[in-house]
Description:
two-stranded antiparallel sheet, 5 helices, 2 strands, Arc Repressor Mutant, subunit A, alpha+beta
Amino acid sequence: MQFVLLAAVWWLSDQAAVPSQLPSQRQVADHAATDVMMTSQVLRALEIRGLVTRALDPADGRVKRLTVTAAGQRLAVRTVPGSATCR
């Protein structure tokens, strides 16, 4: 599940044109078709491992915006088939 959610955050973050469009936890859960509470727990574990960051949305304190760290991006590129050639 960590791999699926890391890949989802990586892909959705890459699609964001500006920081306010970074994916929320809810968007990642919807994209990955996972339970919102479980998604939150797994994303917390990924954050602890230094693979993603979660920051409060300045416009809505209930929303957390997600990004993949440099370490998370390196891991995603190594593990997502074909991603190295897409960069």
